[in-house]
Amino acid sequence: MVTVAPPRSWAYVLRLPRDPRAVRVARMTVRAALDGHGRQDAVDVVELLTSELVTNAYLHTKGPASLRLTGLSGGRVRVGVWDSDPYVPAPFGGAGDDSVPLAPLDSGSGRGLRLVQEYADSWGGWSLGDGGLRRGAGKLLWFEVGGRATLPLLLK
To answer: Which of 7, 9, 78, 101 could form a disulfide with 70 if both were Cys (CB 3.0 to 4.6 A apart)?
Structure first.
């Protein structure tokens, strides 16, 4: 008789309302899920980058967002954030210049996507269209980090 081991992957999906507290809820969910799966080594990076994508979804759209956190083979973690705006920003779009310019030193914002570019192992995004009569349009931005994701001491 052949036995089959259960898959080592796992996934959590969270629907986030258009509410400024959604960013905190997303961070707490990521931390709890990664802690529960023994992935404390990835918590800091995944929590920071998730916070940036969810914050952008809140700031640049007028609707809800969704978060999907997936544990993959090889110790990788993938995070996807869906929102209702179909525009895919650099570096996620893959068209033209994939680099995000540095924000001015005196700017209070503009660093989130640059952080994703610097600390994620891979990232991407897909436009799902402008919606029209279809529900579920918008975009999906995602990133992955490897088995030993850590932030530099400067950011801790």
So the answer is: 78
pTM of the model: 0.80
CB 108 within 8 A of CB 55: no
- Say whether pLDDT at 80 is over 60: yes
Q: Beta-carbon neighbour count of residue 56 at 10 Å?
A: 21
Alpha helices, H only, the chain: 22-36, 43-60, 112-119
**Distances from the Cα of 30 to the Cαs of 13, 56, 72, in angstroms?**
10, 17, 15
Write down the pLDDT at residue 13: 97
- For the chain, the distance separating the N- and C-terminal CA atoms, rounded to the nearest angstrom, is 51
